[in-house]
Predict the structure.
Amino acid sequence: MGVLPMTQSDASSRLGLVFLFVQFALSAGAICQDAPPGNADVVTPTESDASSPLSGTWKNLAKLRNQAALRLFEQGNHPAALEAFREASRLDPDSAEISNNLAYLLHLLGNRSEAERYYRRTLELDPDRYVAHVNLADLLGDEGETEERLAEAAALLVRARELKGNRSSLILRQARVAARRGLFDETARFYGDYAGVEPPNDERKLEIGDFYLKFGKEDEAIAWFRQISSKRTELAGQAARRIWRIEVDREARRLGWQPRGNDVPGKARMLAAQGRARLREDNVVEARRLLEEALALAPQSAEAHFGLGDLHARQGDLAAAELEYLRALAMESGNADTHARLGRLYARWPGGKRMPEAAIFLGNALQFRPDWSELRLELAQARQAGGDLAGALAEVNRFLAEAAEGNERVRAELLRDGLLRLLSAAGSTPPPAESPVPPGAQDGDAASLLARARALMAHGSPEGALLELRRLPGREQNVEALLLEARILHAVQRPEEACTRLDQVLTFEPKNTEAALLMASLLTEQGKPDTAILYLAVACNEGDPDACFLLVEQDFGQVTAARGAWYAGLTSSGHLERLADEIRKQLVSERPFLHREQAEALLAEIESLLAIRWYGVGACVALALLAGLLILWRRYGGACLDDMIERHPEAAPELHRLLAAVRHEVLKHNTLVLSVLVRRLSHGENIADEAARLHEGLFGAGRGQEGALGRLADYRRRIEQVGRSHGLHLNLRRDPAFGPLLLGFDRLKASSADLLRVEFLSKARRARLAGRLEEAARLLNASGYEALRGLLDRFRTTRVERTVLLDAFSRVRAEPEFGGKSIGEG
């Protein structure tokens, strides 16, 4: 049965309705269902017992549009499906089924606020609609939502479970929401219920293991990771890596080392979550105790600082709340909730003194979560209080575009009307003499409005200028007006909107040099110099001297930043000559050149670098010779550790401590596995995992995590520092104990790349790798280790010569107390 499209013509509409009425009279009622993906259930048909034939026709027509929308959705035509669902909703606004379908598609397309409104409308129409409870819970229970919305999501899932029973998908959702709320016991119970209903697959096992790991339950996490059945999948690899990391951290704790990373322990997370829960229950004393205990365990816990900020704000201590929120923000800069809390806190500040800061943080929150439309009205009020009337009006208009009917909408409309009056008053000031209204221009025509906008901008009123521009009729939004609006938006620090206007200008006129220059300036301010260069190149190709100079300036800055100005003068003289020629070319250009003074200064700097390059060459040669002599002296000169012990026995305790640490931390826990790897490698076994762990132990895992090689370098530096403190230059390369260690690690460094890709090496490469590892093992575990052990044994005995004892005896006998007494040498 076909569906007639609805047109705008009254006659066509009447004919379509008559035809449809006849169709519905001859056909059975269409069966309606919720949007099929993921969360849909089969539902009962919509009631067709309308109060009148006409209302029944509208409902039947709504059914047809709903079915058409479902077919479009299944075909992937989401825009057409959305329009069809909206039309069905307008025809039958009391259909819970259509309302839910529309909400689901809006949620899928990212319109969260409108989706939430339709989900709530669905539940008003049909409080027992299971799928609407689940869909709204999915929306409210997303990662990063506030505690209040997460709690509502949990309640919706409880109701859904009452309606449909113990479905595994429902229980899994409950577990995830509870985990996001920081409720460990409740989450563990839900995951247990889920496993009892449906055996978890590998993906779920990894998820449950990650949950236990997040809360510091390492044994439970390992148990779930080890249940992953397949050994050749990516999930199995992820589980193996997690188990390895847990075991390494355990070993580090056992040996008294600090575990890697600054993650908040699971116990601290639980305490912070419990503290925030107690605060929601108004149990302030218990909340403070729990939050402070969490911070004692983990001062880096953003959640605990956030909770303390809420506590202080509730008690009216705004300064203390600000400090805690800022600490939380320092640890989680992307948390929209913290930005919103700070913005609202500043809006409460006595006397309205911190309204500009309130606007900044509320704006930041909306950048992270644009769907939090309720913040827009607060942002508008903050901007109005801070004097940004145009920005306040823009936020009010955005709020009204999304807001439903109610008190908030009425308040927003009143605020909008007040802002329009204020902006109109600002825009009605007469233009200055230097920017007169063109003769013959009427008050509302384009020329007059543009002239007023320029005058207001010149008088320091960008808000009024922006209002004048926006009064232009849509057909007269020409390049000139768009360019002026972009400059105004740039002046009021709204770079994203300015870039949008410049994009429009460059769409109309791709070679507009003024727009390209301003776009380059905006992109540079936003930290996007690579993209800015593209726009500068557009203007430079059109012969604009300022754009060409800015390109030269950026090129010169990159050369000198990468190599240093003096080094660039020595090694990049040809490049610098080309830059100097380009600047000279622009200086003689007949076009206006705003950067003339900067260009002359840069040309002088480049010429000075080019003038000294020959002196620099001689200096570099002399320095190279001196450096070569110094390297030769450092390589072949200097003392060994034996020499130092002989000359300065008082250094023995410090040397003993450092050398013992080298033996324990560098050799014993990292190099003993070399012989095992060589044997397994020679037998053709797969040692990829063991080689990766060895590589991590030797060279570290990056991100500031140091390996054995780094620790050896550190101990070498400290031993050499001990030598310098006693006036000796130690040459550890030629030391019998330390030299083999350094040489052995040189062999390992040469094998670093092969260790990481050992499973892909050819047979010949594996043999060469085994040879290098075997040589390194000999140098480290045999030659170096034994020599180091022998050196340490020397510290356990003290040799005393007879002459030393006789000298001590003579000095004691010569003391005044023994004067006149005969003491034999015995």
Remarks:
- The two ends are 129 Å apart (CA to CA).
- Residues 336 and 367 are 8 Å apart (CA to CA).
- The chain has a mean pLDDT of 75.
- Residues 763-794 form the longest helix (32 residues).
